[in-house]
Design brief:
The protein is 0% helix and 51% strand. The chain contains no helices and eleven strands.
């Protein structure tokens, strides 16, 4: 089982940037696919980025493509989400999650979430 802790959320003005961190621990942390999700009040939890275990493959939905960048440093057991050109609609609780396979399977480990608020 992988344990995940997010950090780096906060309040930022529209057009600004934030970098979220997801620190992983556990025996399989560095062999897991890690994804970032977000959930706004009253809405579903949606994926915003994922990265494979060695950091060579990434996927983004159109809503964040070109603005968000996911990366990982396995030496530090940390996955980052760099968020640029933030919009008020990016306001949400952001979660990181882990699973074994890049393309299939359930995300079995989740962090507690970090709040991101973008003011207009």
């Amino acid at each position: 089982q992988v344990q995940l802790v997010e950090s780096g959320g906060g309040l930022v003005q529209a057009g600004g940037s934030l970098r979220l961190s997801c620190t992983a621990s556990g025996r399989t942390a560095d062999s897991s696919t890690i994804a970032w999700f977000r959930q706004a009040p009253g809405k579903d939890r949606d994926i915003v980025a994922k990265i494979n275990s060695i950091g060579r493959s990434t996927v983004y939905p159109d809503s964040v493509k070109g603005r968000f960048t996911i990366s990982r440093d396995n030496a530090r057991n940390t996955v980052y989400l760099q968020m640029n050109s933030l919009k008020p609609e990016d306001t949400a609780v952001y979660y990181c999650a882990a699973r074994k396979d890049f393309n299939n399977g359930l995300y079995t480990s989740w962090g507690q979430g970090t709040q991101v608020t973008v003011s207009s």
